[in-house]
Amino acid sequence: MKKFVILLSALVLGTMSLSAQGRLNMRINEVLVQPDSTSACKAGWIELYNSSYGSNAIEKMFLTTMHPDELFTDANSDKDRDVVMREWAASDARCYEIPRGDERNTKVAPRSHVVFIADGDVARGTFHLPFILKPGEDNYIALYDVNGALVDEVTVPAMLPEGHSYAVDENKLPTVGVLADTCWQVRDGKTVATAITPGNYNTRDANENIEKFHVNDPHGFNIAFFAMAIVFSALILLFICFKLFGAIAKRTAGSSEPEQPATVAATVEPKAAEGDDEVIAAIGLALYQHLNAHDNESGVLTFGQRGTSAWSDKSALMRQLPK
Predict the structure, then answer these.
(1) Does residue 207 register a pLDDT over 90?
(2) What does the angle CA 278 – CA 280 – CA 282 come to, to the nearest 5 degrees?
């Protein structure tokens, strides 16, 4: 039972760790502060991009325009970061907690996007923010995890023209967990390379990993060798582990067996049979009748002559009709 509890705890912790690691792949991908007169959307928007190859649930994450120095002050230093974020989301419109209950839409598919409209009207749905982006000013935007850890941040410059977006350079994608190496560019929407496409950005035809393999290992020998080495190493490691576990289990089982008490030879002498003469006579008579129940036989078998049988006369097998 103890081993089962330990394994279950390790499994739960590993699942939580993988889930948290997956949300670190969510990136602020593109921001439009002020749309032009031709845009169908009359408010600014923020686009998030799932850069991983697994789905990520973003409910209970936080989008905010508040700087960390304003969020985490000395007054709330004794509180957990997630508690501080929830308090700000409940009291200040500049901090938005993505609600739970819309799991179908807030579960972002691999390598796909989700767009939040900064129109200041959360009553319109899950993807409408309570704050608006201010044209002509620097707009700081941050994305926080459910535990209050900073996932991504960007400061959109005040010089961003109307109808232009501030987007991540698709050829210089950032590293997960490293915010400083993100490269941004201004997109005007005049060409395909600078198109403003909320919810459809960073769609690339080439796969960088495959291109790298093609350059570094054109014949596939290296990847085949390392793949086989990893598989056989894993099998050898499993064999060693099973052997060790079996030896430990046998030793544990042997040490846990209770010691058998020494057998004490019985020293009780049988008591003499007690009974009167009638009982003894009845026993003797029963033994005599049992041993002399039959007459002595000669042991010779005598076979008598019979008529024909069904084996020799097949007519005996037929039904005899009455005459």
Answers:
(1) no
(2) 70
Alpha-carbon span 29 to 21, nearest angstrom: 18
Q: Are 26 and 58 in contact (CB under 8 A)?
A: yes
- Cα 235 from chain centre: 22
Instruction: List, in sequence order, the alpha helices (H) in 72-216.
Output: 81-91, 103-106, 208-216
Describe the chain by its helix, strand, coil percentages, rounded to 5: 35, 15, 50
Check if the beta carbon of residue 96 is closer than 8 Å to that of residue 90: no
pLDDT in tens, 141-199: 999 999 999 999 999 999 998 889 998 876 665 555 555 567 888 888 777 667 776 65
d(CA 197, CA 127): 17
What single-letter amino acid sits at 27?
R
- Mean pLDDT, residues 260-271: 53
The residues facing 56 across adjacent strands are 108
Percent of the chain with pLDDT over 90: 33
The stretch 208-212 carries a mean pLDDT of: 67
State the Cα–Cα distance between residues 244 and 91, nearest whole angstrom: 57
pLDDT of residue 306: 61
Q: Note the helical H segments in the chain.
A: 2-23, 68-71, 81-91, 103-106, 208-216, 221-256, 277-291
- Res 80 pLDDT > 80: yes
For residue 63, give both structure tokens.
């989008």
Helix ranges (H only) for 72-150 are 81-91, 103-106
Q: Which amino acid is at 185?
A: Q
CA distance 91 to 259: 69
pTM, two decimals, is: 0.57
